[in-house]
Design goal:
The chain has 13 helices and seven strands. By secondary structure, the chain is α+β, with helices and mostly antiparallel strands. The chain has a four-stranded mixed sheet. It is globular. The mean pLDDT is 93.
Length: 268
C-alpha cells in the first residue's frame, strides 16, 4: 500500500530558527536567490484546525454548522456595505475579498507571504502556557496537483480558470459547487494599506465542509503543509525578537488602531 503523506512538523525556539527553516538550502537555479515561495498563517492555538471564518460561524464546535448560510451572509454584506464603498468592485470575487478583509465570515482563509507577519499573529494573545504555531503552505505543489498555473492567481483568473460555458462566480460556487475539487492561492488587489503591509493572500477551497488540512490530506497533499511549533517557554523570546525587528502592530495595522494596539501590548 502506498504511504500517505503527512503534515511536516518542526519545533523552533527563536525567530532565527524560523528564518533558517524557511530559507531554501540552495539558490534558485533561475534567479540565484534563496527566496521561499510558501505562504504562512500564524495561530495562537496549535491544536485548532485550519478553519475559515465560515467554518467557525456558530461557534466552531463542531465546525461547518453554518455552511449553508454562506450566500445569505454575502448578499447582506453587499446590501448594507454600499454606502461605505468609494468605488465599485471589479467583480464579485473582489467583493468576497473585501468582505473577508473586513471580518465577514467567508470560505477564504487568510495567509501572508511573510513568515514574520504570521509569527506576529501567533505570538499575540493566546494562553500564556500554550504553544503557538506558524503554518506554511506550499501552494505551488497544491496548484500542480489540481492542474492550476504555478502563479499567484488574481481574482480575474478565478472566473476564467473554473468557468466553462460562463464565468465562474462566488454565486455559482455557493449554489452549484465546483465541477472539480480544487484548492488555490489568491493574491488580492491592494484594497487598503493593511492588505499591503501584511503581504496578505488567501486560500480558496471548493469544499466548505472540511478543514483545509483535511481536504489536502484527502488529496494526498498533507505534506504541502508544515507546522512550525513555538514552545510555550519560547513564545516571549520570539515575541521580543519580533519587536526588535519592528514586526509589530504599528507595521501590520498602519493606522491609529495599530499605534494604540502596539502601545497597549508593549506596556501590558
Amino acid at each position: 500500500m502506498e504511504k500517505q503523506s503527512s503534515i511536516i512538523e518542526i519545533r523552533i525556539k527563536s525567530l532565527g530558527d524560523l528564518i533558517d527553516a524557511v530559507t531554501p538550502a540552495e539558490p534558485d537555479a533561475k534567479t540565484g536567490r534563496r527566496r521561499d515561495v510558501g505562504i504562512y498563517r500564524g495561530m495562537n492555538d496549535p491544536d485548532w484546525p485550519l478553519l475559515t471564518s465560515l467554518d467557525q460561524l456558530g461557534g466552531g464546535k463542531p465546525p461547518h454548522m453554518k455552511a449553508d448560510v454562506e450566500e445569505h451572509v454575502l448578499r447582506n454584506f453587499i446590501r448594507y456595505s454600499r454606502p461605505y464603498l468609494a468605488t465599485a468592485s471589479v467583480n464579485e470575487w473582489e467583493l468576497l475579498v473585501l468582505a473577508q478583509h473586513h471580518g465577514l465570515p467567508t470560505r477564504l482563509l487568510d495567509w501572508s507571504y511573510s513568515p514574520l507577519v504570521a509569527a506576529h499573529f501567533a505570538t499575540v494573545n493566546g494562553k500564556l502556557d500554550s504553544d503557538r504555531v506558524v503554518w506554511r503552505l506550499d501552494w505551488q505543489t497544491v496548484h500542480r496537483r489540481f492542474g492550476l498555473p504555478e502563479l499567484a492567481l488574481l481574482i480575474e483568473d478565478i472566473q476564467k480558470l473554473f468557468g466553462e460555458d460562463e464565468p465562474f462566480t462566488p454565486w455559482k460556487l455557493m449554489r452549484e459547487g465546483a465541477a472539480r475539487d480544487f484548492a488555490c492561492m489568491i493574491e488580492p488587489p491592494s484594497l487598503d494599506s493593511r492588505i499591503e503591509s501584511q503581504s496578505a493572500v488567501f486560500s480558496l477551497c471548493s469544499d466548505k465542509r472540511r478543514s483545509l488540512a483535511e481536504f489536502l490530506a484527502d488529496h494526498d497533499l498533507a505534506d504541502a503543509l508544515t507546522r512550525f511549533i513555538i514552545p510555550a517557554a519560547e513564545v516571549a523570546r520570539v515575541r521580543d525578537q519580533l519587536d526588535l525587528v519592528g514586526m509589530d502592530e504599528r507595521l501590520i495595522f498602519p493606522d491609529l488602531d495599530g499605534v494604540a494596539a502596539k502601545i497597549r501590548r508593549y506596556y501590558s
